[in-house]
Write a structure and sequence with these properties.
Intraflagellar transport protein 122 homolog, 12 helices, 707 residues, 4-stranded antiparallel sheet, alpha+beta, signal, WD repeat, WD40/YVTN_repeat-like_dom_sf
Length: 707
């Protein structure tokens, strides 16, 4: 907040200029850039054109002056009474100026101002966003809807009549009520009681919120439906004007005592995540639960400000200003999105963090944790040494869940909701920003205030590794040794103690399930599908086939599965190879693995012979032949080369061995010569192999008597 005070001059009107370099007041420090002298009496109202090139001022001297953005007056016209309000059409830049007895319409294209009489003093005016209609609020409690030509289309008479003058449109009157209407004149919902006299109202650019100020000496923030969300700023006197800077969350307030205050509103993200369910606040009063896998959404409508949200398994807790609502899923179906109210705790709680368990609510208040039953009874309390920075439910039996707690002094504790003692897991020298525990509860990942991700062994307290540039971290819920962390515009995936694999991604990692990483960017949660090929190959390089298979199960391509299968097969890890070949439906290799397993059952354990068979199946014939020879099975190399018709290579394995092998080789070579239609060569080889009948048969077929 910034505040500037005038010489006790009542502030009736304020506007924002779209170009910060040419404002009358500098919003950074409140310096008066230039006073404008053109009116002879009190200025009641000012308004900027949407393009920022002109603004208009209306005064008690009955005149309207149009100024340029360079603060030069270019046009002046008058009414018969003091000017009460002015408003620019957002599309045509037509100016409406309203007095105690009439209103005028001026546009840059026309020289004259068309004026229209009214039955009462006009206190406020506003154009619709499409610039087609002008609403006039009057002192006698009537709202008149006019078209661009000034003709009345709809007339709304508020209860209370002249005792409830309309001071703002959308409609706030001095009957201390706020109401909303369609252009047809039909009221939307019921009147909302304000308990103060409203003097000003201002919508945010997109119309999602509105500001209301008046006799209660403060400006309140409301939803577009009229639900009060909170106080923007308390003042020392009546608030006569408030404005929202276009396309921003900056607010300026002008008061009776001459004070101008400048605020920035920060709309923080209120949300909760459990596995694939994400709950977040919408429109400040509603909660949307999103199933990140199916993309289904369900809206839980509320009529109060949502302050905190927590979700765990089938439970959803929503904290409002005066109560906490606990919802449960209607069924145990994992895809069920229907929530119903289970319990209500009608009590006001102040807390920094909120988590929900199966049977309890956990409130964090600075250094204090409180465990409440769903009936609101405090069952247990823990007091920490330092401020609590992070808290997370890590599972457990209903009513006995464990909590992971990180403190500002670097201490990390585990707490069970049914135990008054807090267990210290470890203590580091830097403050905790984010925590997560691995699936088997053996490792702990911490992001500290220096943006460093540190991973510890919980049992030995040893620091296993650390990585820089991290703002959040999450372990994979399906794989013990995989985690991801975000920071610096990158998503980092780390498997075991291998180097980090990076890809560009904006936002904060909040969950990691299988091949999906859940990332929060600004106000949007998305599930990012991340291929696991890189970490799988890291494991393959180290011949860690079982671990590589676990990673592959999270999501890799068919080509990756085949590579894993081949690597595991060459590594003689037949169980992993069989699973991988099953994934790609390769029956040929599955038959090979089955035959090897049968041989092992019968006592065969020559690994070189098994590997030689693998190489032969893969087409690595020379490597296979070397292994056959090394394992003392040259005959298998000879047989392989003979079957392949690679007779020159086969001869290398004849040596001075059994003559039967030589005869077999020549016979196969003769068969091959016959098949490729070289009968003379076939006859000669059959004769050499002693197969005289086959030689005679071929000779007879060709009429060769001299063979």
């Amino acid at each position: 907040r910034k505040g500037w005070t005038g010489s006790f001059v009542c502030i009736f009107a304020l506007v924002f200029f779209l170009s910060p370099s040419e404002q009358v007041y500098d919003t950074s420090d409140g310096t008066l850039i230039q006073p404008l002298k053109g009116h002879k009496d009190t200025v009641y109202c000012v308004a900027y054109a949407k393009d920022g090139k002109r603004f208009a001022s209306g005064s008690a001297d009955k005149s309207v002056i149009i100024w340029t953005s360079k603060l030069e007056g270019i046009l002046k016209y008058t009414h018969n009474d003091s000017i009460q309000c002015v408003s620019y059409n957002p599309l045509t830049h037509q100016l409406a100026s309203c007095s105690s007895g009439d209103f005028g319409l001026w546009s840059p294209e026309q020289k004259s101002v068309s004026k229209h009489k009214t039955s009462s003093k006009i206190t406020c005016c506003s154009w619709t966003n499409d610039g087609q209609y002008l609403a006039l609020g009057m002192f006698n409690g009537i709202v008149s809807i006019r078209n661009k030509n000034g003709d009345e289309k709809v007339r709304i008479e508020r209860p209370g009549g002249s005792s409830s003058p309309i001071w703002s449109i959308s409609v706030a009157d001095w009957g201390q009520k706020l109401s909303f209407y369609h252009l047809s004149g039909k009221q939307i919902g019921k009147d909302r009681v304000l308990n103060f006299d409203p003097c000003c109202i201002s919508y945010f650019t997109k119309g999602e919120y509105l500001l209301l100020g008046g006799s209660d000496r403060q400006v309140s923030l409301f939803t577009r439906d009229g639900v009060r969300l909170g106080t923007v700023g308390e003042q020392s006197s009546w608030v006569w004007t408030c404005k929202v800077k276009p396309d921003s969350n900056y607010v300026v307030i002008g008061c009776q005592d001459g004070t101008i205050s400048f605020y920035q509103l920060i709309f923080s993200t209120v949300h909760g995540l459990y596995k694939d369910r994400y709950a977040y606040r919408d429109n400040m009063t509603d909660v949307i639960v999103q199933h990140l896998i199916t993309e289904q959404k369900v809206r839980i409508k509320g009529r109060e400000l949502v302050k905190k949200i927590a979700i765990y398994k089938n439970r959803l807790a929503i904290q409002m200003p005066e109560k906490i609502l606990i919802y449960e899923l209607y069924s145990d179906d994992s895809a069920d999105m229907y929530y119903r109210v289970k319990e209500k705790i009608i009590k006001k709680f102040e807390c920094n963090l909120l988590v929900v368990c199966s049977d309890h609510i956990i409130l964090c208040q600075e250094k204090r944790l409180q465990c409440l039953s769903f009936s609101g009874v405090k069952e247990r309390e823990w007091l920490m040494e330092s401020l609590i920075r992070y808290i997370k439910v890590i599972g457990g039996p209903p009513g006995r869940e464990g909590l992971l707690v990180g403190l500002k002094n670097g201490q990390i504790l585990k707490i069970f909701v049914d135990n008054a003692l807090a267990l210290v897991l470890l203590k580091q020298s830097t403050a905790v920003r984010c925590l997560d525990m691995s699936a088997s509860r053996n490792k702990l990942a911490v992001v500290d205030e220096n943006d460093t991700c540190l991973v510890y062994d919980i049992h030995t307290k040893e620091l296993l590794f650390q990585e820089p540039n991290a703002n959040s971290v999450a372990w994979n819920t399906q794989c013990e040794d995989m985690l991801c962390f975000s920071g610096g515009g990158y998503l980092n995936i780390k498997a075991s103690n291998f180097p980090v694999h990076q890809q560009k991604l904006q936002g904060f990692v909040v969950g990691y399930n299988g091949s999906k990483i859940f990332c929060l960017h600004v106000f949007s949660m998305s599930a990012v599908e991340v291929p696991q090929s890189a970490p799988m190959y890291q494991y393959l390089e180290r011949k860690m086939f079982k671990e590589a298979y676990q990673i592959a199960c999270l999501g890799v391509t068919d080509a990756d599965w085949r590579e894993l299968a081949m690597e595991a097969l060459e590594g003689l890890e037949f169980e992993t190879a069989k699973k991988a070949f099953t994934r790609v439906r390769d029956l040929r290799y599955l038959e090979l693995i089955s035959s090897i397993e049968d041989r092992k059952k019968h006592g065969e354990n020559n690994t070189e012979l098994f590997l030689a068979d693998v190489y032969a199946y893969q087409g690595k014939f020379h490597e296979a032949a070397k292994l056959y020879k090394r394992s003392g099975h040259e005959n298998l190399a000879l047989e392989m080369y003979s079957d392949l018709r690679m007779f020159d290579h086969a001869k290398e394995f004849l040596g001075s061995g059994d003559p039967k092998d030589t005869k077999m080789l020549i016979k196969k070579q003769a068969d091959w010569a016959k098949d490729i239609n070289e009968p003379k060569a076939a006859v000669e080889m059959y004769l050499s192999a002693g197969e005289h009948m086959k030689a005679i048969e071929i000779s007879g077929d060709h009429g060769w008597v001299d063979m």
